[in-house]
Every structure is written in C-alpha cells, then in structure tokens.
Write a structure and sequence with these properties.
globular; eight-stranded mixed β-sheet; 31% strand; 11 helices
C-alpha cells in the first residue's frame, strides 16, 4: 500500500503538467465566473506498477474514495508564499477541492480537481493554485531520490509558464529561458529521455466560452466547434518537457 501511495502522491504532485492522461475543461459564463474541472487518469501508471511488482495483493487492499478540500491547506499555502493570501486567492482556495478514487481490483486511479472562480482574475490564479496544492500534497510521506529527480525535471518543464486571463482574453505562455537552461542538466535530461520510453503523456485542454472565439494561436493541435464557442487544445506533455513553449496558447473571444 505504501508503494502505491508514493506513486499516487508523486503523480498528483505533477498533476496539471505530466500525468499519464490529463483532461482539463474550463467553462466561462457571460459574467466571467465559471469552473475548471481537471481529470487525471493514472490507471496506466497503476497497472504498470502492479505488472512490475506481482507480490502486491490487490484483493486485500481497500478502495479509496476521498475528497480533499483545499480550504484546509490555506495556512500551509500562505506559509509557502511567505505572505497572506489576497481576497481572490483565499476565495479560490475555499472553492476548490480534489476527489481521489482508487480501485485496486480494477487497477484504476483517478483524481478530479474542481475549482470555481468568480471572475477572470481568479481564473488566472487557478494554475498557480493547482501547482501549490500539488506541492502541499507532496509534503505528506517522503519520497525516494528517484521520485525527487523526476519531480524536479517535470517541475522545471513548467516553471516558466504563466496563465493570464482578462475580459475576452486567455493566454498561457512561456516567460523565460530558465527552463531551457535547467532541463539541459544531464541527470534531468536523462530522466526526460527515460520517460519518453513510457509512451505519450497526452494533455487535453478545453474552453467553453460565453461567445464565439475571435482569434486563437497554439503550438498544439486545435479543434474549434461549429459555433466557435468550444476550443480544444491537445499536445504531448513529454514534448512540452523538452520545449515548454509547446504548451503555449492565446485565445481572444
């Protein structure tokens, strides 16, 4: 059970950027409020683990269905930030939660993170909120050295990314060159190459807009619905680890 828990916590720590399969859907209402729902399917990782360690008795393990409310971690998050939360940060934390489901017999593992925002200014905070929440979960059981190396590699892959949101605008872009310099470290590049051997890590990002999109640019694959109110962007996170700019997109509506 401890090994499975460690794998799960590692995966959750890297949730929005490097899971086996990540599907994030943002719905924006006319008044700027909305919801971000991100589904992280870790079943493939779980099946891989049990295939490598056949000594695990999945029948004896108790399934997990648990909800974590981020409002319970505000104090820790403020300590990490080194300052008190703003009104928007506190409200967003109070309106965000994560549901975790693990079925050992079926070898499925799914996490669903839900954040409700009251305006576009709060939507812009959801990326950093989710990253903070995952880092907080990483402070529970200690991880071994190899897990730490993987965590550093994947964290570096997104450390230069920034989400900006305002009326009629969503922008997710790469801000600097620090990631490129860091990822060129030999141990981290080796970790990235090893992860390529595991296959793709697909990411799908969907925006349901209150009105038709006017303009969109993205490095990944883009699909637009017939009414131009639904935008879907997809890419392989492993490519994003080598070139963070692949994650970038700019939407005007």
């Amino acid at each position: 059970m401890r090994k499975v828990a460690c794998i799960f916590l590692l995966s959750i720590c890297l949730v929005f950027y490097s899971c086996i399969s990540t599907d994030s859907e943002t719905t924006i209402h006319a008044d700027g409020s909305g919801t971000v729902i991100t589904k992280i399917d870790l079943s493939a990782m779980m099946k891989m683990f049990f295939a490598l360690d056949t000594s695990q008795n999945t029948e004896a393990e108790k399934n997990i269905d648990s909800t974590i409310y981020l409002r319970d971690f505000i104090a820790q998050a403020e300590q990490k930030k080194g300052a008190a939360f703003t009104k928007d940060e506190r409200e967003l934390f109070q309106n965000s939660f994560m549901n975790i489901k693990i079925d050992f017999k079926e070898q499925t593992m799914l996490a669903v993170i839900t954040s409700k925002f009251s305006g576009m200014n709060q939507l812009a905070l959801t990326a950093s909120l989710n990253k903070d929440a995952m880092e907080l979960s990483n402070t529970l059981p200690p991880q071994d050295t190899s897990q730490g190396d993987m965590g550093n590699t994947l964290a570096n892959a997104v450390s230069g990314m920034k989400l900006t949101a305002a009326e009629g605008l969503i922008d997710y872009s790469y801000q600097g060159a620090s990631v490129t310099a860091s990822i060129e470290d030999s141990s981290e590049m080796q970790m990235t190459e090893q992860m390529y051997a595991l296959g793709e890590m697909p990411v799908k990002i969907t925006y349901n807009l209150p009105r038709a999109v006017k303009n969109i640019t993205a490095k990944g694959k883009v699909e637009i619905s017939a009414d131009k109110k639904k935008i879907t962007i997809s890419y392989n996170m492993l490519d994003g680890m080598k070139d963070p700019a692949i994650q970038s997109y700019h939407i005007e509506f």
